[in-house]
Design a protein that fits this description.
Elements (H helix, E strand, L loop, with lengths): L1 H12 L15 E10 L3 E5 L4 H18 L2 E5 L5 E5 L10 E6 L2 E6 L2 H14 L16 E9 L5 E7 L7 H13 L4 E5 L1 E2 L2 E2 L8 H4 L3 E2 L3 E2 L6 E2 L4 E2 L4 H12 L4 E8 L4 H6 L28 H17 L4 E5 L6 H5 L1 H9 L5 H18 L3 E5 L12 E4 L4 H8 L4 E3 L2 H4 L3 E2 L11 E3 L2 H6 L9 H4 L2 E6 L9 H8 L2 H10 L7 H17 L22
Parallel strand pairs: 2-3, 2-4, 4-6, 8-9, 8-23, 9-16, 16-17, 17-18, 18-19, 19-20, 20-23, 21-22
Antiparallel strand pairs: 1-7, 5-6, 5-7, 10-11, 12-15, 13-14
Helix pairs in contact: 2-3, 4-6, 8-11
GO cellular component, one term: membrane
Keywords: Glycosidase, Hydrolase, Signal
Protein name: beta-N-acetylhexosaminidase
């Protein structure tokens, strides 16, 4: 009976969250009460004995102990803060119920992942100083009385990072994952290869990093300026570093999706192994300008063998379901001029060069499927006919996603006008150089990933939404953060919170508190105190 009352009251209160709850993304059902629970001098946390549950409890204990200086103990029952397995099937694999009463704090979930998201909400109910990396000063460690039942709207809630254009150090990648997890996102899409750099060690092909990871110079200023800095640039991740990141993400219930571009965006690979190109005698160089190159892979059998060998090492490293193969922006100029490509089109009874790209994608899909994984690619993989097992990431607006869903293919929505975080977010005259376009916080927040034209059955194929971060103009981690937050915070709410429960005015009120958390975490978000290089001023100056 109490859950029936909770549900009825929760529907009424979820639309008008009271001032003391400033959780992002916004929980879907909230019931508040007067009063607060004070953490005791000694804090006990209990959780089921299984390793994953204890791991979540320990992460919470470590944060509370670090920020408050209180003694924190772990046990399997009877904690002031308790994590417990719920029998409520409506919570699913990622939902949780959080109850704060005079007796203490209870987080119930069907899985450790759901409990982890309950912990993220609990931390946001505490004073913002709970995120401090060291013991905070004079703080009253209280938690408002509240009951929350929260289940995400979408199963796929992602954020991408391009490290091919500008390499990002491991420490920053981990921080990026921390922020993904804080915002209850569960997918980190790692764009590892492109024309301007190959960033992942492949042991069978050492030249990919010996040669392909380094370019002779980089564009400076805007693309239209046509100027270069004349400085060699590069970097890559060893397989041990990749494993380290994957484990770090898994500890925070974030899946890492690798992207290995093919058959276009291939210049770094061709500079490493020219025989994979359309003209093996050509001298290729790792790309130094931004944009799209005509140089693409030639789909000979030797090239397919290369792709399969590379993807085998990638699949052995990355345990997640999805392997991203790019598939976008593949010019057909060289294929039109190639006798081999034209003969292959005739041999395989393909319609044209778009059919040849589809032939490539379908073969790669078959290979990835044979390894027990799912292929995902940008919406150009629709051209020439979509591979049967493919998941489409729709970036050129929603058209590709709609088409794929209508063909009963799974879709992740990433339309540029809403979720491309390399766009300007304010007047370009006041901002450092960016690729162009304009996507402000309000526009990102307004996005609805489920197009109205889809039927109910077709809409089930919309897995979720992802923010994309292309780094042509983002040279440093500080500038990545400046471009990503708070727009990625808005996107996290698009992915988690039911449309009927969203309000931009309410989001802005909660963001006013949430940015204080990011201050403590040292995040260089847009709107933070910055210097002339658009880098965060830390410690914060009054």
């Amino acid at each position: 009976m109490k859950y029936i009352i909770f549900t009825l009251l929760g529907v009424l209160t979820s639309l008008t969250m009271l001032a003391q709850v400033h959780i992002v993304p916004k929980p879907n059902q909230v019931l508040e009460a007067k009063g607060q629970y004070l953490l005791k001098r000694k804090v006990s946390i209990s959780a089921p004995s299984e390793a994953a549950w204890q791991h979540v409890a320990k992460m919470l204990a470590d944060q509370i102990g670090q920020a408050t200086g209180k003694d924190v103990t772990l046990s399997t029952k009877g904690g002031q803060i308790s994590l417990a397995v719920s029998s409520d099937a409506s919570l699913g694999s990622e939902g949780y119920r959080l109850m704060v009463t005079p007796k203490g704090v209870k987080i119930q979930a069907q899985t450790p992942q759901g409990a982890f998201y309950g912990v993220q909400s609990l931390l946001q109910l505490l004073p913002v100083e709970i995120f401090s990396p060291k013991m905070a000063g004079d703080v009253t460690w209280s938690i408002p009385y509240v009951t929350i039942k929260d289940v995400p709207r979408f199963a796929y809630r992602g954020l991408m990072l391009d490290v091919a254009r500008h390499f990002m150090p491991i420490a920053f990648v981990k921080k990026y994952i921390d922020l993904i997890a804080l915002h209850k996102q569960n997918q980190f899409h790692w764009h590892l290869t492109d024309d301007q750099g190959w960033r992942i060690e492949i042991k069978q092909y050492p030249n990919l990093t010996k040669v392909g990871a380094y370019r002779k110079e980089t564009m400076k200023g805007h693309y239209s300026d046509g100027e270069y800095d004349g400085k060699p640039y590069g970097g890559y991740y060893t397989q041990d570093e990749i494993k380290e990141v994957i484990q770090y993400a898994a500890d925070r219930f974030v899946n890492v999706i690798p992207e290995i571009e093919l058959p276009g965006h291939a210049l770094a690979a061709l500079a490493s192994y020219p025989e994979l190109g359309n003209n093996p005698d050509q001298i290729y160089q790792v790309g130094t300008r931004w944009g799209v190159y005509d140089e693409v892979f030639m789909p000979r059998e030797a090239t397919f063998k290369f792709w399969e060998n590379v993807l085998t090492e990638v699949i052995d490293l990355f345990p997640g379901k999805y392997i991203h193969i790019g598939g976008d922006e593949c010019p057909k100029t060289q294929w039109k001029q190639s006798r081999f490509a034209q003969d292959l089109i005739k041999k395989e009874d393909l319609k044209d060069e778009h059919g040849l790209q589809s032939y490539v994608i379908k073969r790669i899909d078959q290979f990835i499927t044979s390894k027990g994984r799912r292929m995902i690619g940008w919406d150009e993989i629709l051209e020439g006919g979509l591979s049967p097992n493919a998941t489409v990431m729709s970036w050129r607006g929603e058209k590709g996603g709609i088409e794929a869903a209508q063909q009963n293919h799974d879709v992740v929505m990433t339309p540029g006008n809403f979720v491309y975080l390399d766009h300007y977010q304010a007047d370009s005259k006041t901002q450092p150089v960016a690729i162009g376009g304009f996507t402000d916080l309000a526009e990102s927040y307004s996005y609805d990933p489920t197009p109205e034209v889809l039927t109910a059955d077709q809409a089930k194929h919309i897995l979720g939404v992802q923010g994309n971060v292309w780094t042509e103009y983002m040279k440093t981690p500080a500038y990545v953060e400046y471009m990503v937050w708070p727009r990625a915070t808005a996107i996290s709410e698009v992915a988690w919170t039911e449309k009927k429960n969203k309000s931009f005015d309410d989001f802005k009120a909660r963001w006013a508190i949430h940015q204080k958390r990011l201050d403590i975490l040292g995040v260089n978000y847009f709107g933070a105190p910055i210097n002339g290089q658009f880098e965060y001023v830390w410690p914060k100056k009054d």
